[in-house]
TrEMBL record:
GO terms for cellular component: actin cytoskeleton. CDD domains: CH_dMP20-like. GO terms for molecular function: actin filament binding. One of its GO terms (biological process) is actin filament organization. Residues 17-122 form the Calponin-homology (CH) domain. This is Transgelin. Residues 1-20 are annotated as: Disordered.
């Protein structure tokens, strides 16, 4: 089996049809329109127009111009505009897929992961009252302790990992030592 075929098989195994269906239903719920019947999930999203419409529904005016005609670079520009808009909306850069992941269908699982990250981010925007996707992110639970409670906590011996009865790892050597070679 060639390396390319192995990579494609591994990426295909990462895809989760249930998550794709859930993401599709969320997009349809936000946009108020169904995907064309018989078309694959990634084919509907490929040109970026649906994605731009999605972010414009969540935050109007996020993408000023949606390219509906033109060459492939115009369509890829839609995807790039969507990526910029969701980063501005609050989706962390680490959660955003690469343009080729969608355009060349290299990693559709990452595209779905980005949609879930966008869906989670909608919880943090009180102006959005439409459907949500994914679990609600946790919020900070700040606690204020009195000085008395803080002092009482300093006297407690923490043994969360248990007691080691005075044993240490001194002299223990696992594997080969680190060798630094200079001048070679």
């Amino acid at each position: 089996m060639s390396l390319e075929r192995q990579v494609r098989a591994k990426l295909a195994s990462k895809r989760n049809p249930e998550q794709e269906k859930e993401a599709q239903q969320w997009i349809e719920g936000v946009l108020g329109a169904k995907f064309p019947p018989g078309e694959l999930f990634e084919d509907v999203l490929k040109d970026g127009t649906v994605l731009c419409q999605l972010i414009n529904k969540l935050k109007p005016g996020s993408v000023n111009k949606i390219n509906t005609s033109g060459g492939q670079f115009k369509m890829m520009e839609n995807i790039t505009n969507f990526q910029s808009a969701i980063k501005a909306y609050g989706v962390p850069d680490i959660d955003v897929f690469q343009t080729v992941d969608l355009w060349e269908k290299k990693d559709i699982a990452q595209v779905v992961s980005t949609l879930f990250a966008l869906g989670r981010e909608t919880y943090r925007h009180p102006e959005w009252n439409g459907p949500y996707l994914g679990p609600k992110p946790s919020e900070e639970c700040k606690r204020d302790f009195s000085e008395e409670v803080l002092k009482a906590g300093q006297t407690v011996i923490g043994l969360q990992a248990g007691s080691n009865k005075g044993a240490t790892q001194a002299g223990q050597n696992l594997g080969a030592g680190r060798k630094i070679l200079l001048g070679k």
